[in-house]
User: What shape does this take?
Amino acid sequence: MDFTYINKIFDELNFTDEEITIVKSVFRKVKIKKGDILLKAGDLVNYQYYVVDGCMRTFHVDKEGKEYTIQFGISDWWISDYTAFFSGGKAVLNIEAIQDSTLYRISREDKEYMYSKMPKVDHFFRIKLEKAFTAFQKRILINLSKPAKERYINFIETYPKIEKSIKNYHIASYLGITTESLSRIRKELS
Amino acid sequence: MDFTYINKIFDELNFTDEEITIVKSVFRKVKIKKGDILLKAGDLVNYQYYVVDGCMRTFHVDKEGKEYTIQFGISDWWISDYTAFFSGGKAVLNIEAIQDSTLYRISREDKEYMYSKMPKVDHFFRIKLEKAFTAFQKRILINLSKPAKERYINFIETYPKIEKSIKNYHIASYLGITTESLSRIRKELS
DNA sequence: GTTAAATATTGATGTATGGTAAGAAATCGA
DNA sequence: TCGATTTCTTACCATACATCAATATTTAAC
Assistant: This one.
């Protein structure tokens, strides 16, 4: 079995042989096909997922059936319904594969176990969270302050890799506009 | 000097006497008057602040001079320009006191020192970040999915304490609408 | 390659919220 | 307490984006 991904997940951490054994034991490979659902709203959320390759999408569906994309996940990103994963509650979000994808999952219990055995893992995830928090703050600010056209330009500049592999209506639902409005913006820009 | 605040800041952590000495040495009290600026965009951000009492506001000012409120900070909240504080870069945000306030500040260097000496502090701030991350995600979702009236209702339900001590135009700038629009919404609701 | 399905575009019209300007109400300072 | 300043409200019109409906284009299935 291939464990080279461990180095990629925890890139800058130096584990002892004993620690490597622990880390290997808690991750499990998950393969998922394009269009398949990894997590449904209402499910208990017991796992966090590391994306090796492919592309995932986290989204909310409101009462009228409209979708709002919270996050895309490509290679080297982590995905989950974090609100539910952190608290042990039920998912409000859905996660689907928008490309065939390979993930590694870890359970909340195993993550707690890693924290208790290896303080450096606490440190590692704290820094990951600082970056994720920063990214969310930037998104809140741009959503408050910029019109849709600028948000779209910012999106394709910030996520050039993602932009190529996803549908326009997914980008629209990330930006908070309709697919028709996005189409008009794209026309203006071309 | 009064160090009871230490227990409040790190409520569930049990420090040894030696650790308490370290913690006490890295925090410094800051008093600030209503209307005063704690941090200006462009400044280097060397501190993170714990609010003991009063009310602070973190906001961005765009090129046209319009303000966008990212966060309010009342008793027991932490505030800073985190993007800059985490990375060591310059502030994009401003922080002002909207009430006379008492804060305790800690520098990035001292925080790193605490992390290196006490893994439980890493653990503590990781959990704080998980909660802050979750709150931001909820805000992104409501900003994408709900009209201004519902965002306002959600705000006053979520932050009843804050709502009483701040101006309507600050709430408007947090919701991403004009003070005139907020006024119309308030009229509808009354 | 041809057809069906999915996705993207376009046009006409509606709605939420913005901008400007004026006035009313509340708060502050002497 | 009274005038000055700040904050809030109201009215009118403008704009960004939504909605609905139709059509065009791309992708997928056989």
